[in-house]
Design a protein that fits this description.
The chain has about 210 residues and is an all-alpha fold. The protein is built from 7 helices and 2 strands; from the N terminus they run H-H-E-H-H-H-H-H-E. It has a two-stranded antiparallel sheet. The longest helix has 20 residues. It is globular, with a radius of gyration of 25 Å.
Length: about 210
């Protein structure tokens, strides 16, 4: 087959595939069922919308936490090998080296459930039941004195918990840029560095190798 015929054939083939798309049809796949969508729709908003049925207490969550979480985060959420620390650090956010943990930094309690539900344990995400996630959430909050050990955490009570840093985030006070275009040049008179990710230990470093900037 000549190159011109090859090109003509390829053009006709692509056009045939594109025709259903241009007509608003789906040439491959199918519309997902409500049940399939529900399996992906597992996020919970900061105000609690999306939290599933279930419940848990810190006492129930301690055993689950020790089995599924402590190998990385420590038996009390204090961190192991500089993996993310989960509790502690309250009152440190104004320090030069703040301790940003789930209980000192995160402003909304339902976010704790949401993150654990979707992303933990590392390497085995979404393997926990909703009751287990509620229990682990309760254990973390109780470990830092935010709730008592016998407090029942569920879809109704979790959004009502006031986190220590609930008022620590504010709306961006800067005025809108005229015309809606972002500033790309000479936006501020001076740039002042107020924090360093390495200094506050956000990312664990391999101490066997020298750190270079």
């Amino acid at each position: 087959m000549s190159k011109s015929r090859e090109l003509l054939f390829a053009t006709a083939f692509v056009a045939a595939l594109a025709a259903p798309v241009l007509a608003g049809e789906r040439p491959i796949g199918r519309v997902p069922t409500p049940e399939e969508i529900a399996r992906w729709d597992i996020d919970a908003r900061p105000d609690g919308l999306g939290l599933p049925p279930g419940r848990g207490t810190a006492r129930e969550g301690e055993e689950i936490y020790l089995a599924r979480c402590a190998s990385c985060h420590g038996e009390f959420g204090e961190a192991v090998g500089r993996w993310p620390q989960l509790v502690g650090g309250q009152g440190s956010l104004t320090w030069d080296e703040p301790i940003k943990t789930v209980t000192s930094y995160w402003p909304y309690a339902p976010t704790v459930f949401d993150y654990i539900k979707r992303a933990m344990p590392f390497g085995d995400a979404q393997s926990l039941t909703d009751d287990e996630v509620y229990a682990i959430t309760a254990f973390l909050l109780a470990s830092d004195g935010i709730i008592p050990e016998d407090f029942v955490v569920d879809a109704e009570s979790l959004p009502k918990i006031v986190m220590p840093n609930a008022d620590g985030f504010i709306d961006d006070p800067r005025p809108d840029v005229p015309g809606g275009e972002p500033c790309m040049k000479d936006c501020v008179a001076e740039v002042v560095i107020v924090g360093h990710a390495r200094k506050i230990g956000v990312t664990p470093e391999d101490k066997a190798r020298p750190v270079t900037d």
